[in-house]
Amino acid sequence: xxxxxxYLSQDEINNRISGLNELKKDAAKLQKRGLPFMMxxxxxxxxxxxxxxxxxxxxxxxxxIFCSSALLMPLASxxxxxxxxxxYRKTTNPINKLGFLCxxxxxxxxxxxxxxxxxxxxxxxxIYAIIFAAHLLPFxxxxxxRIYFTASMVESIGVILIGYRFGYPAAMAFIVIMQIIxxxxxxxxxxxDEREIESNC
Length: 201
What we know:
Layout: H1 10-30, H2 35-54, H3 58-69, H4 72-83, H5 94-104, H6 110-119, H7 124-134, H8 139-142, H9 146-166, H10 168-200
Helix pairs in contact: 1-5, 2-3, 2-4, 2-10, 6-7, 7-9, 9-10
């Protein structure tokens, strides 16, 4: 049996890459580069930051953190309405579906945090924070926003270093500050996208 080898010419590859980039640009503009979710994360991590100060019992604090994660989608939906984005909108663009899956993907890693809830409750918060930070990475490709890449790397490493050196409240404050920076940068990119749309009209 003869092995079948398929390959594309360089022109075909370039054409497909061009088409893919157009799909990514469309998804980025339609979903405002994921800004509603990042705005929601600022509120969630602010609440978690205050829980590290106000809730002394570690089990109660960890329980609060798990409960707060359920607010992500409602908050993102509310911010989406403020920005004119329907985060649940169904489109034929596969990049939109990929972005939604990347966002939901972090919930599949929560069992690791749930394990730590019982086995190592003192480490659960850092594990939860790392899961959140790490899940930002693929959005740098989905929305062509390098800020996601930077935030993912800086937050994942920074939360550990700051957490062990200065304590959890400082580590959570660091995440809040980083997420605010992410929101500011994404807002700038969204405005650039809107100006591009206006110029093409």
